[in-house]
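Consider the following input, taken from an annotated entry for PhnD/SsuA/transferrin family substrate-binding protein (Undibacterium jejuense).
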Amino acid sequence: MSWTLTRLRWLALFFAFATSMPDAAELQRNIKVGILPYLSPQVLITLFAPVREQLQQQTGIPVELYTATDVPGILKKSLHQDYDVLIMSAHLSRFLQKRAGYIPAIQFTNDLYGSVFVADNSKIVKLADLRGKKLAVTDRAVLVNLAVFKALQEDHIREGDLIVRPSLNQNAALLSIVKGENDAAIAAHFALDQMPEEQARCCREIFRTQTLPNMMISFSSRLTEKQRLALTAALLNLPETEAGAQFLKNSRFGGVKKIELSSMPELDKFLPETLKYLDLQ
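Applying the prediction step yields:
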């Protein structure tokens, strides 16, 4: 192969790569990523650090991670498109697509379930045993909470049959049953994996919902198409890097895939109850 032809091929590859990346001058600022506060802020920022590094390395633009102490707090900012990138539950991603113009792009591939946990030495073994018991629950608009309460209703257990105790996040809810402050807690099925091992061993799962759609990553409509494509490419490359693959393993998200926007209306069934609890009807 001639040196000229080789050089032309390298130039073509370089041009294709360069044109897929956002020009730093286009943003003039850092990329702001907002994360649903399903775990404590410290745990979330540490957990998602590899995502920040991936985006920084592949776009050349500094990335900042943000979360909040509660769901309404991050939704309030999201409704004003304060974040360039949002990592949200599927139904809230749909809500923010409709209300704020965010564009869903990536979804984590592993199945998601809502679970009920009790202390390992608890006598509670089934949902019916929860009557009259203290149940730790995070924001009621969270998808796993909606799913578990629906299952409770189907099991003829009314909310009035329970002593519902609010928790800031799933870490706090699970820790409350370890400490004996509550009898049970609702959390995502993988939440125990984000706790110290000695605490996780003190918890036992007694119920799991049917499969739920996993979390999604959306982009602000204020970003250009070129910027969104570059961010999408960087996120789809997560499984190919050592840190990204470890993140997908530690988070129990499994993998990443592109979202078909035509499938998003399927999530509308969750919105009426979500909006009721968010007082946004």
